[in-house]
Each structure stands twice: as structure tokens, then as C-alpha cells.
# Entry
Amino acid sequence: MGTRKHYEDDFKEQAVRLVLESGESIPQIAKDLDISPGNLRRWVREFRDKGNDKNMLSRDDAAELARLRRENKKLRAQRDILKKATALFAEDLK
# Structure
């Protein structure tokens, strides 16, 4: 049975930055660095989940944004219905 490799945090961070900045695929970068693509994917996911990537939202932030967008859409629809109802009642009073 083989021994597990331990990668320094600095190496992990540089590998993740390569993925985020180079535009190359994770498997290609992993092959170039002689590491497992699965490890590199996990490092990128962990990096994003911590909110370290300023261009990407963490999972929690993305979920919150989606929830707020749904709520905003619902509130706008309710507002539009109330506007139409108000206009109808105003016409009836004339």
C-alpha cells in the first residue's frame, strides 16, 4: 500500500490560483503538477467555499442570493397585483 502525499498549503494555493487564472482545465493542470485531479477539484471547491475567490460566491452566498432573487420576484409580482387593484378601485370611485 502506498503512502499518502502531504501537500503544503502554499502549494495548494498556487495550484488553485493556476486553475482560476490560467483558464486551463483541472485535469490538465493536475497532470502538469503530477497530482490527482480529484485533489485539485477539492482544493478549488474548498477555496471557493471559504470565500477566498473574490470573483466567485461561496456556496452559502450563492444559495442566499438565489433565495433573495426568488423572494424579490415574488414581492414584485405582489406589488404589481396591488397596483392593478388600486387602479381598478380608483376607476370605480370616479
About this structure: The mean pLDDT is 86.
